[in-house]
Amino acid sequence: MHCNLRMVQELCPRMKQEPQILEQLLERIIRLEGEVTYLRAENQYLRSEVTRLERQLEKYEAPKNSRNSNKPPSSDFPKQQKTQSLRQPTGKKPGGQTGHEGTTLKQMSSPDKIEPHMPLYCNCCGEDLSGQPSFFSGKRQVIDIPPIKAIVTEHQLFDRRCKCGHLNRASYPAGVNAPVSYGENVQALLSYLGARQYVPFQRLSELMRDVFGLGISTGGINYIMAKMEKKAAGTYEAIRQVVIHSHVVGADETGANINGKNHWAWTFQNKRATYIAMHPSRGHKAIESIIPEGLPKSVLVTDCWPTYFNVETQTHQLCTAHLLRELVFLKEKYPLDQWAQQLSQLITDSLSLRKEDNISKDKADKILESFGGLLTNPPSSDSKDLVAFHKRMAKYAGYLFNFLTDKEIPPDNNGSERAIRNFKIKLKVSGFFKSLDGANVFASLRSIIDTAIKNGQNPYQILCLVANCNPATE
After folding, report:
1. Which ranges in 379-434 belong to alpha helices (H)?
2. Between β-strands 261-269 and 248-258, what pairing exists: parallel, antiparallel or unpaired?
3. Are residues 155 and 176 in contact, defined by beta-carbon separation less than 8 angstroms?
4. Residue closest to 430 by CA, chosen among 448, 442, 445
5. Is 63 exposed, middle or buried (0-12, 13-18, 19+ CB in 10 A)?
6. What CA–CA distance (Å, rounded) separates 283 from 264?
7. CA 122 to CA 109: how far, in whole Å?
8. CA distances, 220 to each of 179, 208, 437, 463 (Å)
9. Is pTM, for the whole model, over 0.90?
């Protein structure tokens, strides 16, 4: 739009006679050129701002939350939508199904105490009935517990002198190492209430005082549970050995607040055993410290946290539950792209076959072929997050459908999430661990408790055995 005086004069001969008008027009043109330049720059700036704000608003238009990703429910925004279950409708009515054996309060076949009740006189005429025979007509039972009272056992030593003149002195039983101490049953109960029922030390101290009449301070509880950890060291290591030598191992990790500093609780578990350990790192050095032997003979079932793929294993299995939640998010964010929907349906179909125990080699091959087709036909390049997810699936393609060919491999990592959730419950109840030693005690005792439950054993009774296995341990 640039103009000059000579050009205008050539185009408009009349302007030669009216130079004043010519100058006014030129000034106006120059001013308009400046305005156009400014507006162009402003338009370019506003376009870039719109692009930036659109990118920023994407996370609010299709936000990640606990129902479509692996984020915990505590991170959800207020008024979060109702959780969408990944389960498909079965057509069954809610509640107990036909054939389900219910449980109810039943009478005991051998009651500890029987109280007979007989009429003493006739309600009609008042005649004495004490000499009349009685006939059984019914029974009811009341189940209660006796008054709880601690039993104090005093160990007294006596001396005896032999005829030869030697004075013989008795010795205290193993574990009786102080003038006054708490016995193995108290140690097991405190461990059970603290690690299994998540009771904080302050409330545990109150419970022991109010219910059992035992004035145990929080420091005393901490000492007793630390003693239990030492007694449980052999059992704790035995659980670790069971896990690392298993065919299938699931793993997960979660943050744990220890006196204001973040540490990580790691779990390695399977159907038989649960091993939980603490470490300040979430990286590979944590796994090297916890299981330096690696898992060369195991299938490791995890989410896609990169650290797990640095562990020496036989192979891996990705958690399909994690992937399906991510695909929910991607379907919401990119509704026009069918790639996420197709992979979600493929995983869902494979899980249905696994649940129905209807997986043949032909069906497994067909699923793998369909998965390969999805990998060779990536989503639109405009779907940034979906493209990143596709690349991750291509990288770990050999780890998604291993559960189709081995029935021992679970398709998800829910067992590990259940194991690690106990740390979150403990933290929600207590707030935080005051020391790493306290967190290690909880990890050790919780490993034993969860392993006992998996094997159909009473966790309190197992803790009693642990408390009695080495009574001399301080």
Report:
1. 384-395, 414-430
2. antiparallel
3. yes
4. 442
5. middle
6. 10
7. 32
8. 15, 12, 15, 18
9. no
Helix/strand/coil for 317: strand
Is the residue at 202 inside a domain? yes
What does the chain come to in residues?
474
Is 248 a domain residue?
yes
Q: What is the pLDDT of residue 406?
A: 93
The reported pLDDT for the residue numbered 473 is: 47
Reduced to 3 states, what is the DSSP secondary structure of residue 100? coil
Token digits of residue 26: 């030129």
Q: Tell whether 114 is covered by a domain.
A: no
3-state DSSP call for residue 298?
Answer: strand
Nearest to 68 by CA among 303, 308, 301, 333: 333
User: Is residue 220 domain-resident?
Assistant: yes
DSSP one-letter string for 233-292: HHHHHHHHHHHHTSSEEEEEEEEEEETTEEEEEEEEE-SS-EEEEEES-SSHHHHHHH-T
Number of domains in the chain: 1
- Fill in the amino acid letter for 143: I
Q: What is the mean pLDDT of each run of 10 residues along the chain (474 residues)?
A: 55 60 82 89 91 80 76 68 63 76 84 92 91 91 90 94 94 88 93 95 95 93 94 95 96 92 96 96 94 95 95 96 93 91 95 88 92 93 92 95 94 94 90 92 97 96 89 48
Query: Do residues 236 and 271 touch, judged by C-beta distance below 8 A?
Result: no
Q: What token pair was written down for 351? A: 């899980």
For residue 137, what pLDDT is reported? Answer: 92
Give me the helix-helix angle, 218-231 and 233-244, nearest 10°. 50
Q: Which of 329, 343, 337, 253 is nearest to 291 (CA)?
A: 253
Record the tokens describing residue 16, joined without a space: 């030669």
Q: Do residues 325 and 67 touch, judged by C-beta distance below 8 A? A: yes
- pLDDT, one tens digit per residue, over 245-284 is 999 999 999 999 998 899 999 999 999 999 999 999 999 9
Give the Cα separation of 359 and 349 in Å (integer): 11
Cα–Cα distance measured from residue 166 to residue 451, given in angstroms and rounded to the nearest whole number: 52
Long-range contacts of 377-380 (CB under 8 A, 24+ apart): 377/339, 378/339, 379/334, 379/337, 379/339, 379/340, 380/334, 380/337
Show Cβ contacts of residue 362 under 8 Å, excluding neighbours closer than 6 positions. Answer: none
* 3-class DSSP assignment, residue 32: helix
Give the domain range for residue 274: 185-297+434-474
- The pLDDT tens digits for 197-256 are 999 999 999 999 999 999 999 999 999 999 999 999 999 999 999 999 999 999 999 999
**Of 286, 274, 263, 288, the residue nearest 437 (C-alpha):** 263
